[in-house]
Amino acid sequence: MYISIKKLLKEGKLAQEVTLKGWVRTFRSNRFIALNDGSCLENVQVVVDFEHTDEALLRRITTGAAVEVEGTVVESQGKGQAIEVQAAKLKVLGDSNPEEYPIQPKKHSLEFLRENAHLRVRTNAFGAIMRVRSTLAYAIHKYFQENGFFYVNTPIITGSDAEGAGEMFRVTALDAKNPPLTETGEVDFKKDFFGRETNLTVSGQLEGETFAMALGKIYTFGPTFRAENSNTSRHLAEFWMIEPEVAFLDLAGNMDLAEDFIKYVLKYTLETCRADIEFLNQRFLDEEKTKPQNERSTMNLIEKIEFVIHNNFKRVSYTEAIDILKNCNHNKKKKFQYLIDEWGADLQSEHERYLVEKHFQCPVILFDYPAKIKAFYMRLNEDGKTVRAMDILFPGIGEIVGGSQREERYDVLLQKVHDLGIKEEDLWWYLDLRRFGTAVHSGFGLGFERLVLFTTGMTNIRDVIPYPRTPQNAEF
């Protein structure tokens, strides 16, 4: 058995005999190994008795090499660490050619690290990001499990399009070069594996609703896929979504749930991953120094997280937000790429960030959106032109949560389905929920990577998922 570096440093027991396994970060003066095993941000210093160690073995101790060390924990004589390990036995488990190993102990660009995504997690920054990501995921399950929610696994392959966007990845087993055709010359999906046209899911919401209307409170947490050609720092083709659905919950309760959930998850992660987030905070501050003064954040990373945890989210109607945007100097001076000139406009990221970062200077929940720019399943308000939708907007991110009170009235939902040209037979089971024991219910979706983006202070979504899937890129 070997001890993790995290446990070793936490216990700090002197004179104990330990076995360590990890990867060499640096080896200097033929004597000092900085060893890291991924369990925490910190390295442990291993002191080698080079005078009594075979030279051939010393040459194999290079950056990136995997080693096993047996030795004694002693008080460190050098600066920067309280304890170190005096090596009695040293074994190289896996060599690393220093001429070829790309992750050398120096600063690398994020683009270079994306090209070496299989090794980038060995850097301090990406080790910290992925530990934070793991803790956020655990906190999400912890919150829902402690609050009476049941975890549901919704299908990844589906015949329904929850968003009505049409930007889906098709799943087929047909011969791409010679697919079977119908009499009218169209691809005959009846002869496909599932006997119908199927796609990768864009959301588990519709199936989640069916379980909420039986179990009361459920959540899904799984991969979702969008085939939109958005080559931006905020979009991925494959990402993870958290989607709770709750029976007997209206829009106000939905907003309360989303705010409470986000605050809990951030608080737990900040407390659990303090060292990693402090490291990422310093990285954030260093990045901010490279920006012009007027573009720098007024808060550091930890202050941003604590601000969200300790302050109420501002709740603003879409109509009020449009008035603010239409009359702001930014719009009047045509500094927005997409100018706001009338009610009904679909808000872009620049508008969302203006509301959060410039106008209100806090997280914002927008609600009661125009029906025309929202999905068919959202409950129509009495005015006949807005729906019970809500989006949560975060600084630096824009939209992080999208949710709504679902349309529980059968006749209203059926009319919406017809108006949008959705085939009734494709959603017969979803409509059944409104025929058998319908009730008010609500839910939301939170893009996990955007939450990780906010918590780590990173600026590109490609850097908070192990292997990003983006247009023209499916490497690794």
Automatic annotation (TrEMBL):
SUPFAM superfamilies, sorted: Class II aaRS and biotin synthetases, Nucleic acid-binding proteins
Residues annotated as domain Aminoacyl-transfer RNA synthetases class-II family profile: 130-466
Catalytic activities: tRNA(Asn) + L-asparagine + ATP = L-asparaginyl-tRNA(Asn) + AMP + diphosphate + H(+)
InterPro entries membership: Aa-tRNA-synt_II, aa-tRNA-synth_II, aa-tRNA-synth_II/BPL/LPL, Asn-tRNA-ligase, Asp/Asn-tRNA-synth_IIb, NA-bd_OB-fold, NA-bd_OB_tRNA
One Pfam short name: tRNA-synt_2
Protein keywords: Aminoacyl-tRNA synthetase, ATP-binding, Cytoplasm, Ligase, Nucleotide-binding, Protein biosynthesis
GO CC term, one of those recorded: cytoplasm
Subcellular location per the Swiss-Prot or TrEMBL entry: Cytoplasm
One Gene Ontology molecular-function label: asparagine-tRNA ligase activity
Record EC number: 6.1.1.22
Protein name as annotated: Asparagine--tRNA ligase
